[in-house]
Amino acid sequence: MGKVPDDASKASSSSSPPLPSVASSSTSITDTINGSHHFQINGYSLSKGIGIGKYKASDTFTVGGYQWAIYFYPDGKSVEDNAAYVSLFIALASEGSDVRALFELTLLDQSGKERHKVHSHFGRTLESGPYTLKYRGSMWGYKRFFKRSLLETSEYLKDDTLSVHCIVGVVRSHTEGPKIFSIPVPPSSIGQDLGKLLESGKGADVSFEVDGEVYPAHKLVLAARSPVFRAQLYGPMKDQNTKQIRVEDMEPSVFKALLHFIYFDSLPDLQELTGLDTKWASTLMSQHLLAAADRYGLDRLRLLCEANLCQDVAINTVATTLALAEQHHCFQLKAVCLRFVAMPENLRAVMQTDGFEYLKESCPSVLTELLEYVARASEQSMIVSSHGNEGILDGSDANGRRVKQRI
């Protein structure tokens, strides 16, 4: 082949089109995650005199992944900043460093005129940007929030109560670029896959006899899901016969539902399982399944049953549910039942049920707690009727005790 002349080569190179340029872009976005908390301070006059620097704290609340708390100082935060004032602050109550945030503290006018005392970062230009809290316990607020003598004669104080509303906006930043492509990822199917294994019975190496019914299963699956099955099948005190295990004190349908949850990680259709299309049947199954979940250490199943029972609290079943909650240490469910029974319109009807007789015999200590709830409900009813309020928040934990988390 002949050699291409140099000048021809240069001409060919100079005439080729330029490669297209690739343009890209991205956007930095800075915004806030906002949340609010209402803090009511009852018995203001009784809190006076606790001392300069002493405070009343709200419960902690979460905004933007951090915990916060409101601090009210009836006698002021410090002497040098004039103890004639009350102080009000919002504090970072969880671990964090250089947390940037916007704040709003509002003392509510309780006369209905809406002349609230508001200190806010929101909706205005900030000279130095959002406030930065350096570490846990850092605060933003006002040492001279309100002169005490003026506060006590103002309409912010009503029935010896102050009402504070707080808004926190945690600043966050992230960068977004164009999504060139995306690959859809299906949701996890492990529950369905294990469920098919249970339904097929393939590879089953253990079976359970429950009141004449036999259910095949797989040791490894049971051991992975339940610490009780793990000990029963593989522990040092494992059953002598792990080929077929007899289960006492449990209905076959309950054990079948238990296995369904272990494999599928979800509840079966309880009405379909019982063959009865009634709320009562579903409630009864949830009660038995809760006891089974506690017996085999299946915490998530127990909570699912608690959630179902909370939604279906009724006159004819609440007493047995309350006894069950007490016996299996379900404190949230117990609190819901106690509040329901203590309502004046429910109490007499519940006391006439067979379940209430069972409650008295099996859990007599619960009756004392019930009396406390009834007394509290009566007191609140009196307050509502005297002040015309629509309702009063309980603000208690699952055992009915007042809870204040502190930093």
How would you explain this protein's 3D organization?
- It comes from Eucalyptus globulus.
- Residues 1-28 are annotated as: Disordered.
- Residues 204-263 form the BTB domain.
- Residues 34-168 form the MATH domain.
- It is a single chain.
- With 407 residues, the protein is of the alpha+beta class.
- The chain has 3 domains: 30-172, Apoptosis, Tumor Necrosis Factor Receptor Associated Protein 2, Chain A, CATH 2.60.210.10; 190-300, 2-Layer Sandwich (Potassium Channel Kv1.1, Chain A), CATH 3.30.710; 313-382, Serine Threonine Protein Phosphatase 5, Tetratricopeptide repeat (Alpha Horseshoe).
- It has helices spanning 6-15, 44-47, 148-151, 190-200, 219-225, 227-234, 252-264, 270-274, 279-295, 299-311, 318-327, 331-342, 344-351, 354-362, 364-387; strands at residues 27-42, 56-57, 61-63, 66-73, 85-92, 99-107, 117-120, 131-133, 139-147, 161-176, 206-210, 213-217, 244-246.
- Strands 1, 6, 7, 8 and 10 form a 5-stranded antiparallel β-sheet that branches. Strands 2, 3, 4, 5 and 9 form a 5-stranded antiparallel β-sheet that branches.
- Strand 3 (61-63) and strand 4 (66-73) form a beta hairpin.
- The model is unreliable at 383-407 (pLDDT under 50).
Gist of the model:
Residues 204-263 form the BTB domain. Residues 1-28 are annotated as: Disordered. This protein has helices at 6-15, 44-47, 148-151, 190-200, 219-225, 227-234, 252-264, 270-274, 279-295, 299-311, 318-327, 331-342, 344-351, 354-362, 364-387; strands at residues 27-42, 56-57, 61-63, 66-73, 85-92, 99-107, 117-120, 131-133, 139-147, 161-176, 206-210, 213-217, 244-246.
